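Justification of resources, computational component.

The compute hours requested in this renewal are based largely on the per-chain cost of generating structure records like the one below. Each record pairs the submitted sequence with a full structure-token output. That output is archived, and it is also reused by downstream analysis tasks.
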Amino acid sequence: MNEPIVPHFTLDNGVEIPAIGLGVFQTPPAETTAAVLAALETGYRHIDTAAAYGNEREVGEAIRRSGIARAEVIIETKLWVTDYGYDAALHAFDKSAGKLGVDVIDLLLLHQPRVEDFALTVAAYRALEQLLADGRVRAIGISNFTPAILARFLPEVAVVPAVNQIELHPYFTQVANLAANTAAGILTQAWSPIGGITHYYGAEATSTFTDQTLVSIGQRHGKTPAQVMLRWHIQQGRQVIPKSTRKARIAENFDIFDFSLTDDELVSIDALDKGVRGGPDPEQPQPGFLKRPIPEA
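The structure output for this chain reads:
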């Protein structure tokens, strides 16, 4: 069977990133290596992790064990808020690179804005700019930045972020955030792209996985609601990082390049928006975040 040709997005500095990657948020370290190996065997060439996930070491181990050339895999990770500030962020890179077992990180993001001490956020990003200039990272970006925070942030930095990773799924479509990212030339990367957060924290009856619109569209194409949602993102120009530890689900999420949604189907999925955020509000201080220091490599 021929492997699917996976489309790529080109970041603002020319780095290419596959339209789909594997996310490892909430993946226990003991399960991470197997999940990443399964993804790489399936055909994924982008893995998204973070210092705060506690599984960077296992991601690096899987990539080494896969036998796939390092240059073929995009490694993305994120610095945690306890490592913000210029010097702290430079050291945080060393911690992440050490755990991943790499010299160069392909895509490095700030995980959250620290709205209560925004100067530290800006200083951390300036460290990312230096790492980019030094060739120690290939692209830099941000995560969970709203339009208001982005408007405050961009005048303070020299390099426009290549990526803004935000919660985005059919029940939370983030139209204003998408527009702000696009206007700035920033690629939107969707975390919880199939609405897993609605399944974990909401009632089963309100889960995207059982939504009748998504189920019906899937039935027309012989696809699952998850595959429909991932296709919806990619056709509208968003990069996606679905997570799973199950080999069959990892493969299912990747099997989305042999069908297309119609314009009417895209519009009907857009209309499912409930305007309700599942994750923390980035515009509010999150003191609990500061209680999670990142260990040394």
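The first strand starts at residue 8 and ends at 10. The beta strands are 8-10, 16-18, 22-23, 46-48, 74-79, 105-110, 137-143, 163-167, 187-191, 239-240.
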